[in-house]
């Protein structure tokens, strides 16, 4: 590990159980296990990763990739990264993803998810989505702008080169087998 990783984070990253399912994150100096995804959450995660990867060669969407963004280690539901910047060695991604997507589970705190997103945005993430399946809405952050909430037929901002996607189409992915 690089010397820029704080000691508590470096110690966390050496723990053997952090890749158990669901993965463990290190946020605000505390190790916490992610919430086990529901059926709709899992379908949405899989289908959105497939949609992104089928529609771009510039980026790669990856499910549950550990990122190291000192002093935290988030594991976004989906991390979207510039293909040319992906490391050639296996392991966690040592930066904030270009696009971070979190899918809120019913028992998850919106504030905790938003804090994780804000930390990544302040460390290089260009775009972040927080998908709330139950409310059928998506919170979107772009760089330093305040978040916007999108619903129904609203077109969602995406990374350069990806086709437009509406909130309703994203929510419909929870039903796709």
Automatic annotation (TrEMBL):
GO terms, molecular function: endonuclease activity
Q: Which InterPro entries match?
A: Nuclease_put_TT1808 (IPR012296), Restrct_endonuc-II-like (IPR011335), Uma2 (IPR008538)
SUPFAM superfamilies assigned to the protein according to its UniProt record, in alphabetical order? Restriction endonuclease-like
Which keywords are on file for this protein? Endonuclease, Hydrolase, Nuclease
- Using the record's annotation, list all stretches that form the Putative restriction endonuclease domain: 10-168
This protein's superkingdom?
Bacteria
Under which name does UniProt file this protein? Uma2 family endonuclease
- Species assigned in the record: Romeriopsis navalis LEGE 11480
């Amino acid at each position: 590990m690089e010397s820029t990783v704080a000691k508590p984070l470096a110690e966390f990253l050496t723990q053997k159980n952090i890749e158990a399912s669901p993965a463990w994150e290190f946020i605000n100096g505390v190790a916490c296990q992610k919430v086990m995804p529901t059926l709709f959450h899992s379908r949405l995660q899989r289908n959105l990763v497939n949609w992104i990867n089928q529609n771009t060669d510039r980026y790669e969407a990856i499910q549950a990739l550990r990122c190291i963004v000192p002093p935290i280690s988030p594991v976004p539901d989906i991390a979207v990264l510039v293909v040319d910047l992906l490391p050639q060695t296996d392991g966690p991604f040592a930066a904030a993803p270009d696009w971070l997507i979190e899918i809120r589970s019913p028992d998850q705190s919106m504030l905790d998810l938003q804090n994780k997103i804000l930390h990544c945005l302040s460390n290089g993430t260009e775009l972040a989505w927080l998908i709330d399946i139950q409310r059928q809405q998506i919170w979107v952050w772009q760089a330093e702008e305040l978040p916007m909430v999108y619903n129904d037929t609203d077109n969602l901002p995406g990374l350069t080169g990806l086709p437009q996607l509406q909130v309703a189409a994203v929510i419909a992915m929870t039903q796709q087998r």
